[in-house]
Design a protein that fits this description.
Number of strands: 0
Radius of gyration: 17 Å
Distance between the termini: 50 Å
Number of helices: 5
Largest sheet: none
Helix content: over 70%
Order of helices and strands: HHHHH
């Protein structure tokens, strides 16, 4: 019963979060919470960079059979994911979207990176939540099976978040 409740909660979160982000992106009149919110993309990029690093470290640790340290590192990466989400929502709640100003081939590359990042971020959320849950309840067989898909997607989403940021950062006002 508790397991069903937890998985149902994961399913709900996996739908509510993307819907909430889509709604926030569509809000025309943004509330003003201060100039500090304009710095959030830089913070978000830092979080994505650190998450990417922790994901690679976590992989190395588990390959070396250092489960406890792996658990701590992956919990830190998971926590950063939650922090990323809070800052991302806060930024898009309070600031208009920034348009990419590049032209030619770099524009196509940027949109490929951005669109693949967005699409895979929708896919990775329920995978990461489930993988974390299975590790938490010590169902390591299901955890390992799921992580084979979740890990490379999560790493890709983290890295492409940084790439997209680096490409659009000159256009922030």
């Amino acid at each position: 019963m508790k397991k069903e409740y937890s998985l149902r909660t994961i399913n709900i979160i996996s739908v509510v979060v993307p819907v909430a982000v889509a709604v926030l992106l569509g809000i025309r009149t943004k509330p003003y919470l201060g100039e500090w919110t304009k710095a959030l993309p830089h913070v978000i990029a830092g979080i994505n960079s650190l998450t990417s690093l922790l994901l690679v470290i976590g992989l190395v640790l588990i390959k070396k059979k250092k489960q406890l340290t792996h658990r701590r590192v992956m919990t830190a990466a998971f926590t950063l994911g939650g922090l990323f989400l809070v800052f991302y929502i806060l930024y898009h709640l309070t600031n208009p979207s920034t348009s990419f100003g590049g032209e030619g081939a770099v524009r196509y590359f940027y949109y490929f990176v951005l669109l693949s990042h967005i699409a895979l971020s929708l896919v990775v959320l329920p995978l990461v939540l489930r993988a974390f849950y299975f590790a938490w309840v010590q169902d390591f067989q299901r955890h390992k099976k799921l992580v084979k898909f979740a890990y490379p997607i999560w790493l890709y989403v983290s890295i492409t978040g940084v790439i997209a940021y680096l490409m659009i950062s000159p256009y922030y006002v």
